[in-house]
């Protein structure tokens, strides 16, 4: 059976992956997730993108928000805030906290993030393999035009992406190595799929880990545009992308060096030629993945751009 | 004003301390608590005795149980058990967990248990000083007659004190030093009060930390019997004390080397002479401390046995 690797951010990727696991054999699928958004809160290691994928594919996500747990409560974080005066800008639900405790305990015992992730994925019965992009501590940092250097989550969640962005860097990336299995999975992949995630702080972050982008060079790479009609489907890519890349074609241009196929929304059909001119095969379809069925159609459209699915 | 030091276990001590803080100036009171029962759960440092004291004196305890938080919920521990298959023999409520997170974060950052305790005590507005007996990692271990070596909490909570006890030891005690301020407080104390706590695994554990029992030698030491009518008021002292010490007089005999005054329940009045023969002054009163007022009367009876209160 064909092997597939997906590079994934959080919520948008998770919604797409609901379809990808229907389009391929999950046991032949490896999902490599961004960990640049990871943060420590109250001494715990929080991995927002890994968890969004796990909860969504494991059937435990708060479907309306797209992150966190369904039926969630906030007893611990309320106590941390009201009794202990701890910062509460990042929501930590009680059920969610159990995941962070399990992860943090593995790490505190000398285990790796890969090991913690495998343990959590097993508890959720994920049928595919979920890997962090790296086991190394990396952090996406946002430099604001008002001269501050913020952790990505402080900028995104804490300040609601308010301050204008002067630059983005992945702290620790130079010393990071891909997590065990990442390069092997890419090398063996019949297709590498770029999920419809933020091109800068999700996919771009994964590609910043030395070795990963190089590994894509000789693989069939397809992607799904996270930009529809000139705006991100969700999130804040518009706050991070240069204006000339803020389109389905603009993002394809970012990936042009290794991209073989690109799925764009029907609303962007007029940009198909621009992408084709990059030497990239194009599929145009409905990419607003409100249901797993739509997500499956998008996944099939993406895979259809590369053998052995075409 | 007279300075007082109290050596304290958990629930029984906390109920007595509700009265002691009414009988003395809390700002002149130092409570030294047993940490031999401390354990790590899900990577967090749990200090049951420190927390029973804090929650009781801070007004947040579950009054009926005498431990844990009032209005407590179990969302995190339920998730840990049901989703992640983690052991659930030790109840960790959600609000309680916030305390363990704060403590564990201080420790993970290189802080001491004393520092974590001070921070938690401040959040609860405790008017007295609460110190752990030591900042060193120590653990009360129970050797059972069926040949097992269990952490105290595994024996007490996990197995409900079922297995017969062959021996008790405080792992790490030899290398432990009293926490900063403990010996200084004892040296300056006008009275050291032994709370009505388990003589073996609470008071005995504190006295196992090198230096503490020696420091009592020239101080006025009074205690309140945890044994009433030949049985512990609560807990499992009967499972740990040799039969000849399982009485208000028997416990006084354990402490005879440094004990100056002893408060016994009216039901044990017939044992007063036996204690007096040890050279210990005796007060007999109602020691079932169902209200702070009764606890205050017990505290005043204890202090009345030593100057400057007599």
SSE arrangement of chain A, N to C: EHEEEHHHHEEEHEHEHHEEEHEHEH
Taken together, the total number of domains of chain A comes to 2
Largest interface, with counts of residues having CB < 8 Å to the other chain, equals: A-B, 27 and 27 residues
Give the overall silhouette of chain A: globular
Mean pLDDT of chain A: 95
Q: Can you tell me the residue ranges of chain A where pLDDT is under 50 for at least 5 consecutive residues?
A: none
Radius of gyration of CA atoms of chain A, rounded to a whole number: 19 Å
Spell out the CATH superfamily of the largest domain in chain A.
Answer: CofD-like domains
Number of strands of chain A: 14
Trace the largest sheet of chain A across and list its strands: 5-2-1-9-10-13-14
Question: Which quaternary structure do these chains form?
Answer: homodimer
Q: How far apart are the termini of chain A?
A: 14 Å
- Main sheet of chain A? 7 strands, parallel
The amount of beta strand of chain A, in percent, is 15-25%
What is the annotated CATH architecture of the largest domain in chain A? 3-Layer(aba) Sandwich
Assigned CATH class of the largest domain in chain A: Alpha Beta
How many helix segments of chain A?
12
| Percent of residues in helices of chain A | 25-40%
Structural class of chain A: alpha/beta
Question: Could you name the CATH topology of the largest domain in chain A?
Answer: Rossmann fold
What are the SSEs and their pairings?
The structure is a homodimer of 310-residue chains.
Chain A: E1 4-8, H1 11-23, E2 29-33, E3 39-41, E4 44-46, H2 48-58, H3 75-82, H4 94-108, H5 113-123, E5 129-132, E6 139-144, E7 149-151, H6 152-158, E8 165-171, H7 182-187, E9 191-194, H8 203-208, H9 212-216, E10 221-224, E11 227-228, E12 231-232, H10 248-254, E13 261-265, H11 272-276, E14 281-285, H12 292-303
Parallel strand pairs in A: 1-2, 1-9, 2-5, 9-10, 10-13, 13-14
Antiparallel strand pairs in A: 3-4, 6-7, 6-8, 11-12
Helix pairs in contact in A: 1-2, 1-12, 4-5
